[in-house]
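re the bet — no i am not wrong, look at it urself. input seq straight from the record:
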Amino acid sequence: MKKLLLPTILAASLVLVSPSARAADAPKPLKVMLLTGGCCHDYKKQKDILKAGLEARANIVVDQVHVDDSSTKPRLPIYGNSDYAKGYDLIIHDECSADINDPAVIAGVLKPHADGLPAVNLHCAMHSYRFGNYQKPVAAGADNASWFEYLGMQSTSHGPQEPIEITYTDKASPITTGLADWTTIKEELYNNVQIMPGNQALAKGRQIVKSKKKQADGTETVEEKAVETVVVWTNLWKNKTRVFSTTIGHNNATVEDAKYLDLVTRGVLWATDHLNPDGTAAKGYGPGGK
C-alpha cells in the first residue's frame, strides 16, 4: 500500500511546489523612476500616459516623481539628494528644468548616471540643467558641458510647432528594427548645436518651416524651408552608462501615440540591456512578464 501511495504523494507535492518555484524564477519587473514637472508641458497627464503605456508594453513598474510646478525651476524632491535613484534600474528624465543652473544640484542629478545607472531622456530634458554660455558649443570637459555630454547631444532651442517627418536612419539597431517611419502631429523640432562623441543617431526629423517675407511692393509672400535634425539617439556615457534620448514628445497626442510609446519602451529595454537584437523584449521582460 505504501508503495502505491508514494508516487501519488510525490506527484501532488510537485504540483504544489512548481507554481511557487516558477514564481521564484520569474524575472522581477524593472523598477523605473519617472521624473516630471516644470515649464511648458502637460506633465500632469503625460506622466500617467507614460506609466500606463510602458507598463502595458514591458515588465516594468514605473514610480512617478512629479511636481505640479510649471516654472522653469520645478522643485523636484531629488534636488540635493545624490542618492535619489537608489534601488532603481533606470531613471526617465522628462522634466523641464531650464533654469536649474546650480552646478552642485546638476552634479547630484547626474551622480547615479555617472556611477553607471542607465537613463532615458524625453523632450525638454534636453533643455534642462544648463548654465554659462550654453547657446554656443560647450567645450569638452567644461563645467557647463556635463549634462550635454551625458545626453550625447547639445540642443538649445526649437522651431515652431509643425508636423515632423521621422525617418529611422539606423535600421539595424534593436531599438529601431521593424519600426516604420512616421509623421507626427504638430510638434517641436529641437536644434542640434553639437553631437557629442559616443552618440549613435537612430532617427532624423524633418520639418517644413513657413515664414512670411515682405516684398518691395509691400506685399507678403510665404517662404518654406526644410529643417532636419537628429531626434532619436543613444549614448554610451563615460564608456559605461547606456543613455537613450528623443527630443520628440511635446504634446499629449504624440506621447500617447502607440508609435511613440513603442519607441520609448524599446529605449528603456535597450538601456537596461533587456532588448533582443530583433527588437523584442528579453525573456521575462515583455508584456505581463512574457
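see?? Residues 9-15 have pLDDT under 50 and may be disordered. told u. also Residues 29-289 form a domain with the Rossmann fold fold (CATH 3.40.50.880). so pay up
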